[in-house]
Amino acid sequence: MSYAYLFKYIIIGDTGVGKSCLLLQFTDKRFQPVHDLTIGVEFGARMITIDNKPIKLQIWDTAGQESFRSITRSYYRGAAGALLVYDITRRETFNHLASWLEDARQHANANMTIMLIGNKCDLAHRRAVSTEEGEQFAKEHGLIFMEASAKTAQNVEEAFISTAATIYKKIQDGVFDVSNESYGIKVGYGGIPGPSGGRDGTVSQGGGCCS
Amino acid sequence: MTWIPYKRSWDGIDSTGHNVNAGLLEKDRNLYTIRAVPLTDVHSIHRHAPPLGWQYVIVVLSSGLAHPPLYFYNGGVREFLATIKQHVSLLRSRDDANVFLVNDLQDPLQKSLSSLELPRAVPGSNGTALHSSISSSFSNETPGRLNDATVDGKSTTTEYNGKQKQKFNDPARDISIQVLEKFSLVTKFARETTSQLFRESHHDSSNSYERMQWMNSGSINMASIEPTIKQKVPDENPATLDSLQVDKLSLVWGKARQSPLNYVEWATFLDSEGRVKDSEALRKRIFYGGVENNLRKEVWRILLGYHAYDSTYAEREYLASVKKSEYDVIKSQWQSISPSQAKRFTKFRERRGLIEKDVVRTDRSFTYYDGDDNQNVTLLHDILLTYSFYNFDLGYCQGMSDLLSPILFVMENESEAFWSFVALMERLGPNFNRDQNGMHSQLFALSKLVELLDSPLHNYLKQADCLNYFFCFRWILIQFKREFEYEQVMYLWEVFWTHYLSEHFHLYVCVAILKRYSRKIIGEQMDFDTLLKFINELSGHIDLDGIIRDAEALCVCAGENGEACIPPGTPPSLPIEAESMYLPQDDDL
Known about the structure:
Chain A: It is a lipid-anchor. The structure holds 2 protein chains of 2 kinds. Chain A is an alpha/beta fold.
């Protein structure tokens, strides 16, 4: 299928926060709790539409365990977007965000759009990180923030799409040199950037779902 | 055309230095006989005139079938070709001065060798008068020559094999890479043909002549290249360089796979008290065919090194009971941790949490581990947590559950699975080390092997900045666990665990797979991302037996030069210094 742009995404965060489940929910619209743990990296892809333009998201779902960081770092290269995920029911996954962010800043290109996702917001009764803390962290580090649930699909679409919308806007604003693929963007048919009529409403900026 | 080998017995010494006393069996004689093949059916004749050793030709039929090498122990290849030429048109391939195309004006071989699609049939351009048999001129004449084996040639070969391998210099190495390249071009084509030819004979493992042929074809090439290059012998004879280039069709790639070892055969490997009589023979047998599932429990414990090859039934039984108690003691260490103690034991809580999360994400689609409240999942958990106490410095790391899962499935016993896993981790533990040194040393060795065995791919990966080989990370970390079906994984692992041709056979498997897709990778100019995705998506689409055979051939071809690519102590070799094996892990995420 042809696309105007292809964006490379990377999903990072501690092991067990639901990275693979978020991806599966986004690409296949299903929740599969007994998914084999990720070794190395897995891939997913889906087409979306922004500003009436078909955009292909190629998503890299990485292994979360600390030991694999040296390998995982090589996957950042050329990513246009990152979903940094923590589990709202496990405090330590939130505490580790800074170290993930440091890795991302160090190994990805500076213009990478990062979306912070507090996953498992369906488990509000076991919540260990408040929505405000998530928002605060995102604000401090210049990230987009959403709480989401891979299980109920709440905000999953929104998270992936609003990240894409942000990247798309950066292209329109001339932040990226799209001919340079190190920005994680490939131009497909019809995607040569030019003056645009602005973004349309296919993008819904979701808010925190569990606040 | 008819060929009947004359020589009936071998009394020399083969290139590996072993006495070869086995007479030429009737079977071998049949194998090397060509009976009344019409010349219209012959596609090409490949001449091989190595500087050392005997000249020989290989006859390739247009059906794709290649006959085994026909040796001329005292010259005569030229006369042979001249005689053929009296009957059919014989064209030298433009690509290769030592390939003579029979009845072929289009030179499809040249085309096909580069496109890898060897034609199944060659148009018979002037097929009418070609049925004339030249059997009179050769089947009767050559035996006299065959009879006088040149012992000199043999001993020279032996000498070079034994002494000169270490002194490999770069030009020679380049040639050897070319050699292997040529080999790869014909692999696909020749696999089918030789597997047919060798199927019968390989079933007989005592067939030492066959084995010798096979060993020779790998080692003579490598050995005979070196002196030529080193002495800078000018290329007087066009045949010299070609012979350096590889005995294309004579290079027999991995042997046909055998059926798995079963109980009846297993019993023949044991003495009355249960000791393995000949561990080498057993390892070889398993290397070529694996083990039947109901026998794995017993055999794996030995292959893994939990039980010694020379242990008796009684000793193994005794060890099992001792180890059961030992396991219970280690397990009780974490079982006795109270909730209030756990509250003050972050490391323990973290590891337990990781393991709890991972065992429910391990092979749950496999019947043995599926469903809610599956006791086997609990066993995975208990064994891994016990292991993290047994080897506290290493602890738990993702991927371990993938390695344990088939072991527990086979052992069906907690303590036995634990100790078998311990034995495996003695070798693979460094894969999971925090600094990833075990993985990096294997990936490095892999890059050196590819450089040796597939230089175009190496050059491409270098240019594409992919030499870190991270795209093979999963293959190596969990020994192809995610690349094949469960049953195939068990089979592949027992092949690895024999350490029969190499302790690092898994790296040759990596090379074999990469080599299969080498042209695609280079042709499509895959960048790191594309390559990683491509390799990931090969999962479930790899022809396991074919790859094992390729890997076997590569391993034999590479020989000592291959082993020299692998630094000492590279897993799964046992670590050089057991003391400093693991860096304690600070924290696990």
